[in-house]
Amino acid sequence: MTAERKKKIQVLLKGIETGDPASVTVVNPNKYIQHNPQTHEGGEGLAALFKRLSKTSPRVNIVRIFSDGDFVFGHTEYDFSTSRVGFEVFRFEGEHTVEHWDNIQSRSGPNPSGHSMVDGPTDVRDLDRTEDNRALVKRFLETVLIGGQIDQLQSFVSEVYTEHNPLLRDGLPALRQALTARDVNSESTICYERAHRTLAEGNFVLSVCEGYREGEHTSFYDLFRLEGSMIVEHWDTTEKVAPKSEWKNDNGKF
User: Distance (Å, rounded) from C-alpha 108 to C-alpha 238?
Assistant: First the structure.
């Protein structure tokens, strides 16, 4: 069922290119809960969105796709009128998806170390370590990103660390500097406040967190690759959470 669900989500996301309403048949319209604030509820809302986007001659490239229990989550490139990178998360009940979250950011880069927002390994390995890797990332979130114990960074992140954030370079010093940066009011530039979800398959773990970036309410999606119980590579997207007055559904971003 895992492979079948992944394939259905690949077909669904490629439907953005064609606008074919058949691509959304994986969606159960009677149960579908949409967490993208800019999209209307239900499968019909998704079909309308795809039809509208298809008129911009979009291209969709699914770089990575994973599964975790009833969840399928993907790392995707989008070329609409502008180039974007996103993470998509779907929850299944049986053969159909019934809930969706995403986090999409304008593409930029390469970063100072020459990496794009999506390049790097894609193969899932170490399936037997899935739960250990999930637990390590949860501790990293609680201790470092939310807890602010930056002195513990090297307990979780390898000295040989590859960074895909378009503003940062490889290595622990750049990551430490980013996490300790302050604005003109001496407030943290990046502030993680709550972890909503941690999804994992083998050596890849995706965290979904809420907080503030430069004072704006922000959704943080971070994808980590692990080796030997250490984080060795990182991709992410950050997205400003729109004010509730602009939402097209009432389900919330998270």
Answer: 12
Candidates 231, 253, 144; CA nearest to 190 is 144
pLDDT in tens, 144-160: 999 999 999 999 999 99
Provide the H-helix boundaries in 81-125: none
pTM here? 0.93
Give the whole-angstrom CA distance, residue 113 versus residue 115.
Answer: 6
Runs of H (alpha helix) within the chain? 2-18, 42-54, 130-140, 172-180
Helix spans in 85-196 (H): 130-140, 172-180
Q: What is the mean pLDDT of the chain?
A: 92
How far is 9 from 187, CA to CA, in rounded Å? Answer: 40
- Write the DSSP assignment of 61-86 as a string of letters: EEEEEEEETTEEEEEEEEESSSEEEE
Burial of 9 (0-12, 13-18, 19+ CB in 10 A): buried
Residue 66 has pLDDT above 90, yes or no: yes
Residues pairing with 3 in the sheet: none
CA distance 37 to 51: 18
What confidence tens digit (pLDDT) does each residue in 182-228 have?
766 656 789 999 999 999 999 999 999 999 999 999 999 999 999 99
The tens digit of pLDDT for each residue in 28-58 reads 988 989 998 887 766 656 677 777 777 777 8
What is the spatial distance between Cα 179 and Cα 202, in angstroms, rounded to a whole number?
A: 27
CA distance 153 to 47: 44
Structural domains of the chain in order of their starting residue, each with its CATH number: 2-107 (3.10.450.50), 127-240 (3.10.450.50)
